[in-house]
Amino acid sequence: DFPVDGEMQADTAVVEDILNTTYEFSELEDPANVLVFPNLEAGNIGYKLLQRLGGAEAIGPMLVGMDKPVHVIQRGDEVKDIVNLAGVAVVDAQQE
């Protein structure tokens, strides 16, 4: 089991001080390490900002909700990004 919480502002989800002071009823004890976006465009914006400006190690994007998982290689991905995404694809294939 792992904690899951609902909609919240991005800074609330990832900044521990904000999470603990303004969202004390949250199920999260620590800042979020997975973010879910409402659509592809919003997800891509958030993903690129975290990766390029925040220095986050991003693996994805992954599209879910279809018959099979979809893993998208982005323009400008480095070899390590492709290897990470391939690893996720292997795990997905093994679970089929």
Automatic annotation (TrEMBL):
Task: State the InterPro entries in the record.
Answer: P_AcTrfase_dom1, P_AcTrfase_dom2, Phos_Acetyltrans/Butyryltrans, PTA_PTB
**Record flagged with keyword Transferase:** yes
Is Transmembrane one of the keywords?
Answer: no
Source organism of this protein record:
Haloarcula rubra
Residue span, Phosphate acetyl/butaryl transferase domain: 1-89
Q: What is this protein called?
A: NADP-dependent malic enzyme
The UniProt keyword set, sorted, is:
Acyltransferase, Transferase
Can you name one GO molecular function term for this protein? acyltransferase activity
Lineage summary: Archaea, Methanobacteriati, Methanobacteriota, Stenosarchaea group, Halobacteria
